[in-house]
Amino acid sequence: MEHELVGLAGPGGRWRPVAAGPFALLAVALALLPIRPVWLWATLIGAVAAIPWLLGAAPEARRRRPRPYWRLSADGLERIGPGGSGMVRYERSRIDGLALTTGDGTLTVFHRFGRTAVGGTTSMGLEPLALFVTARRLGIPMHVLDGEASDLLDPALDEALRGGGLDADVPAGGPLPRDHAAEKRLLDQEAALLAAAHEPPRPPVPGGGREPGTGQGRDGNGQRLDTPAPLPSRRRIAVLGTLVALLGAFMVARIAAEGAGGFGARLAAGCWALAAIAGVLGARRRLLRAAQVRWTITVDRLLVRGRPGRGGLQVLPAADVAAVVVGPGLRLDPLSGEPRGADLAALAFGHRLELLARLPAHGLDGFQLAHALDDHGYRVVTPGARPPRRPEYGLEGLPEIFAQVPGGRLVVADGGLGWADAAGDVVLKMPEDRIGGIELLTIGGHAWVRLYDSDGDEFFAAPLSALRISRTDLREAARRAGLPVNDAEYDAYLSAAFHSAVSPLAVPAPEAEVPAGEPETAAVLPAARDGAPTPIGERPTDEFAVAMPAPPGPVTAPGTLLDATRRSRIGTYGMSVLLCQAVALIGAVWLGPELGGFSATASWSVPAGLLIGLGGYWLYDRNRAQLRVSSAGLAVVTRRGRVEWDLGRDRIGGVGIDEAAERMPRLVVWNPSGRVLRQVTFPPDLDELRRACERYGVPWGPPDADRPAPPPPEL
Predict the structure, then answer these.
(1) 286 Cβ contact partners less than 8 Å away, ≥ 6 residues apart
(2) DSSP state, 680?
(3) CB 3.0–4.6 Å: which of 126, 565, 592, 633 could bond 648 by disulfide?
(4) Can you name the residues that pair with 99 across neighbouring β-strands?
């Protein structure tokens, strides 16, 4: 059908053990019984332990029965059983409307005789956006209601709503209620899908997918995004489970070979059988949960692998995809096969707004995935605009008189700073001797000012919009008054503009080649217009050529050098010493009997471990890496001057903490499109790093696509 939505359902026929717990207890009970002969006793234990796997494989050998799933089409809303027959059906002609409740996420069907709660959208395998778009394409009214499905089935609530009115609790002039906001968000996403379906394809970003930096793999001109590799790996999990099973079988066989005469031997055999069964089941569960999601994004197609095997690969041609919705969604539980909520999933919609595929993305970084798709020409729709990032400090330092003076603003008067009222009279003045420095910077896309006292301590910080003065006016007025003002972003912006303007004038003229055997005065230039050689003595000189020195780089430009915190260095020292001490003690226990006893061996191994731990980390610490922040960019240099890596200011989109799912927080450097360029392996002081980035015009935090950073505000 043209408009049809099929709910998410697991594949049928997967091999799984049946009633593994009861059969494991039965195997332990058989192990405790004194069955003779002994070979029959061991055979019964192994057969009972293998029965769950044989029962799970029997339906697989006969036929593959798909799981029940829900479907919304022109015939209505129905649940399709394993044999293809309808188990539950709501005909289209009898449906007056559908509703989603925000409290419990239940889908409710409205018909002429009342209302029926069908079930939760998560358990039905239906995403709210896909359900909303498909229902509207089929002509079924779709609404989002605040509350739970039980509220809609309460007659007393119907009387209360009928008496008070549906909009009686909506605050006048306030924000939208939750149900209106959710429905508006779905309508906005539907509008974005319609725009993507009717607009011509957008070309990919030049260089998208070819810029290094994320640590992700590359596949030709495409980009590969992988979830973190499971620890331990799938191969180690399988090997460990196999070894546990073989060890349990070997121990049971050994006990049987020794006769298994006593109760203690039979109890040990039962414990080994239980350990083998538990090890195999635990390894299977870990293997199912350790599936790695892998995306390969190219301009021509999308390849997504959600689970091992041929059935886990999904291929989508780019020509069939109108837009990709990246946000919270659904995924199949690896153990039960039932739909579950996921923090991140991707829905691929076609040009007729049909749902092409559900692409697993749990474990990936949504920021990276959205920008990678956008760079390769795919239209990306997200649930909504990200909230603006707020600074860590607010307006606590504003004096109370600022709010008491109506129409007040910050002014530069009488060699200092003052607060003037609407008439221009200064009601609060800060003399010049109290001002040690004025710093202008950008925080969250807005211009801020910081004031320092004569000792260099910050005592005031506020946005210039709250002070009712522009950045340019404050900078120019303060410089005319002789106040110490620093606007690193403005100076860096002017320096970059100046270098880009004069760089064509600094290109040296090509030197003439003097033929062999000819005097230097007879050298010719191949630059004559008519092709005739021109003597060097008659060569015209460019009086306006300016020899400009190369601009300073991230290593040579003036900046701030940030080191690892003292706490982290002391902690690393302690961990190094403890590790060496543990090795020394283990070595003393292991090799002590051969070297004169534990005490004699530990008497020299423990001090040696202490010296090795301290000396080894001292050798590393004396040449440790440090982060250099300047207006020209970032660089990591060692104490001996070796440059590990450097990045120019034009390649940096943000510096901050990456708190991606299933990963440890790390300090990274993003490029303007959102890819991770570099990772800082040592933890500097975050407050000092933030202040250094803001002082030298380096954006702090992930790139904000909704708010471009350069150039600085009010330039």
Answers:
(1) 237
(2) E
(3) 633
(4) 108, 143
- Name residue 6's beta-bridge partners: 71
Based on the number of CB atoms within 10 Å of its own CB, is 508 exposed (0-12), middle (13-18) or buried (19 or more)?
exposed
Q: Are 294 and 361 in contact (CB under 8 A)?
A: no
Element (H, E) at 360: strand 355-360
pLDDT < 70 regions, the chain? 1-2, 11-15, 59-66, 147, 149-179, 202-221, 309-311, 384-407, 444-445, 492-550, 659-665, 673-674, 703-715
Sign of torsion, CA 49 52 53 55?
Answer: positive
Cα 252–chain centre separation:
49
* Contact in structure between 28 and 274 (CB atoms under 8 Å): yes
54: which residues sit within 8 A by CB, 6+ positions away?
none
Q: Which whole-number Å values give the CA distances from 655 to 265, 387, 447, 557, 703, in the listed order?
A: 63, 18, 19, 19, 9
CA–CA separation, 55 and 651 (whole Å): 59
Stated pTM of the model: 0.55
Q: Are strands 380-381 and 323-332 parallel, antiparallel or unpaired?
A: parallel
Residues ≥6 apart with Cβ < 8 Å to 710: 493
Q: Which residue, among 225, 323, 228, 346, has the nearest Cα to 675 in the 3D structure?
A: 225
Cα separation of 695 and 558, whole Å?
12
Secondary structure (H, E, C), 560-620: EEECECHHHHHHHHHHHHHHHHHHHHHHHHHHHHHCCCHHHHHHHHHHHHHHHHHHHHHHH
pLDDT number for residue 12:
61
Contact 12, 68 (CB under 8 A): no
Residues in the chain: 715
Nearest to 305 by CA among 317, 292, 318, 316: 292
**pLDDT score recorded for residue 246:** 92
Residues whose CB is less than 8 angstroms from the CB of residue 31 and which lie 6 or more positions away in sequence, other chains included: 41, 45, 252, 266, 267, 269, 270, 273
Contact 213, 225 (CB under 8 A): no
- In single-letter form, the type of residue at position 246 comes to L
Nearest-CA neighbor of 69 among 5, 160, 165, 137? 5
Say what the pLDDT of residue 382 is: 86
Q: What is the pLDDT of residue 553?
A: 82
